[in-house]
Amino acid sequence: MPFLRSTPPLGRRLASALFLLCFSLLLAQAQSANIARDNKPGKAGRERVSLTDGWKFSRFVSDPDSLSYHTTLKSWILPSANDFINGTKYKRPSGTPPGSKVKYVQISFDDNAWESVTLPHDWAIKGPFNAPGISGGMGRLPTNGVGWYRRKVTFSEADKGKSVFLDVDGAMSFAAVWLNGNLVGGWPYGYNSFRLDLTPYLKTGSDNLLAIRVENSHENSRWYPGAGIYRNVWLVKTSPTHVGQYGTYITTSDLSDKSATVRLVVDVQNDGTAAQNIEVDTEIREFNAATGQPGPHVVASFKQAKVNVAPGQKQPVSSSTKVASPQLWGPAPEQMPNMYIAITTLSVNSKVVDTYETPFGIRTITIDADKGVFVNGKPVRVYGSCNHHDHGSLGAAFNTRAAERQLEMLQEMGSNSIRTSHNPPAPELLDLADRLGMLVLDEIFDTWTYAKVADDFHTIFHDWSEADLRNFVRRDRNHPSIMAWSYGNELIEQNPNEPGFGQGSVLFRDMLRAEDPTRLSTIAMNYAWPGTPMADAVDIIGLNYQGEGQGLDTNGAFDPFHAAYPRKAIWSSESASALSTRGTYIFPVAAGNNAIVGGADAGGNDTALRVSAYELYAPAWGSSPDKVFEAQDRHGFVAGEFVWTGWDYLGEPTPYDAARSSYFGIIDLAGFKKDRFFLYQARWSPETKGAHLLPHWTWPGREGLVTPVHVFSSGDEAELFVNGKSAGRKTRGQYEYRFRWDDVLYQPGNVSVAVYKGGKEWGRDVKRTVGNAKKLDISADRTTIRGDGYDLSFITVAVVDGNGDIVPEAANAIDFSISGPGEIVSTDNGDPADMTPFPSLTRNAFSGLALAIVRSTKGADGNITVTASSNGLTKANVMIRAN
Ligand code: GAL
Q: Domains (ranges, CATH) in the chain?
């Protein structure tokens, strides 16, 4: 929800424009996924080992060891920030680091009784719900407490003399790491990735004990944060002479059909004891992002550079080359997400000591104040959505297939962009965005110095914000999918009545420019106005809801901002916040194209905690999709929108704090499409033929009552039929985004629509009055998965009548069982108020549907059968091959 402290004076607005110049910034860049490939085992000189398996874990509800960050660890962990701030700021205190006597860091401690876990791991997701002291806002799951993770790691004699690093992609939160009882360092912000140097503490030829401690308070987030080591962890072994962390930066320029200039900076690190003469070579090949394989041919190479690096120093080496006939990266579906890979080798006396791979793309981005975003010179309207980091019933534990499914469904809807609200995503999400051709607004902070909840980022802002920001950009800047940086969301520093007014706006913008001069940056503002320091500072004006007339200017803030900043592009960094519960229709239906949830018509006081899916309803600060579309269409200079949200997420269950997950999503938490999906698809993918009619047509007791029928389609004319009799043909006018027949009287039978475009049939839909539930239908999104203990199949079960039609309000209890080399990790149904724990194998259908998520077992090679059964209904099963 928006954070407004007080109302800024209206008179402060700058109304008139000084310049009406069109100004565009041409950004040419080439980007990579270097952290994810940092690097594959087997590359000469470098080994990257996944530390997924073999962990022991225990959660403590109260502090078991007095090692809390704020009271004990802070000064010891702060030096981990030094690589990311200008000049060494923090020194390690003298004396014995804390924790060395704590039993959990000792190799001798017997952890047999602890739980065996595999990373990525989210301890809270299994529930139960209604965890003491955890609000609906945070998802009602037991995220609080201290978590200890322990794992033995063996280094062979061959590892002697190597540099060894621990790369943690994300741990929630205040992570602190010990190796063999020595406190190595840590990183408090749970969404950032970090590296620690294990070299001084490891023993070769014997077992080493790695212990990681994380801690979460009851109130550290406005949404579900997850808990524990919820992303991947890697051991990286290199020669002392190696490419540093995030050690390549690639940009491109001078693009034409014939060639592109590629610039490369390589950070050459010498952790050895003597100066080294190092040869730096890089070749470029095409890159198949789906297989992770470089192509067979070298398409360009950089002239060899020779550098002498003193011991303990890092030296950047810059060079450039040209790629002939470049295959450009661009967003799908209009453009192709072509990728390249730069393969860098460091050699000493012609012997390769390190190999480092940097996937990247060649493309230009222009963000124009009047015309919006252009990629490779072609216009791209931002059809985006904001999304939090969780995967619904799988929780925060990152899973590549779950993330891929989220992006694929957004793309199916016609979406071309995502905003990583409000934090750095898992590195693999950006690899997926590169591969699938999704543009990304990469965002880092939800708060700066002010609290939104008691223990959020503001508690560490002073010490960590610079390190977090620079780390984030260096990690992500080679990804071609990233079109801009966002350095904050709805910051309270927007507000002139707060003492911190505007502070940080220029400072962080300039840090971003220094770390990545090729991209623009923005802040998502919900209560800004022209002439305030934050609006003055940002490169792109990001407006949350203000464009549609919320916040400062009830007439909509697009025009005043455009007039005041004729050189800055504007987009809706957050729009809509529309609310609905899939498959739920509450009467009467609002007459206009936008209504605030609250009355009996929409929900807002519904005892089953539902909001009507006529898709007209929003909280006071939001707007229906229709109202947003109109505001966008009336302001052609606006570059587009990021809808709040693409997917439902855990936490923030507005308007019902008693629930546990959101109502904002276009797609529900289980991955089932709400009606809204088709409203967005009609707008964002207008070439997609079809029609989508709502509500369902099984309303015993509503005979003769007004039951409005709405149709979402990109067609321009539509005729509705009730039991074959025309209820009227309608043409969709300007600023109308749906066909609606609001006075239809319900009678059992069927309601159908025929939609036309340019006089030709464009699509049909029908809803029938269904009979009693008879059987279950089952289907899998993928019937072949990898037998790697990680890949997933998403199984949908529908409760259907004798004709195979879904029984729209069916809530039958479904029992899932499984045989073969796989397990059911979780079940769900998309109901934000369902408090059955996610691992439960019994799940009530909700609006006729239920979901089970199946994961293969490691080493699986065979058939998995999933069976769904329910009292009185014919059961169903589906087979999945895992190999
Ligand atoms: C916005 C906020 C989001 C979310 C949303 C709900 O103001 O930025 O994080 O809370 O409201 O409508």
A: 53-231 (2.60.120.260), 241-360 (2.60.40.10), 365-579+618-684 (3.20.20.80), 692-768 (2.60.40.10), 775-882 (2.60.40.10)
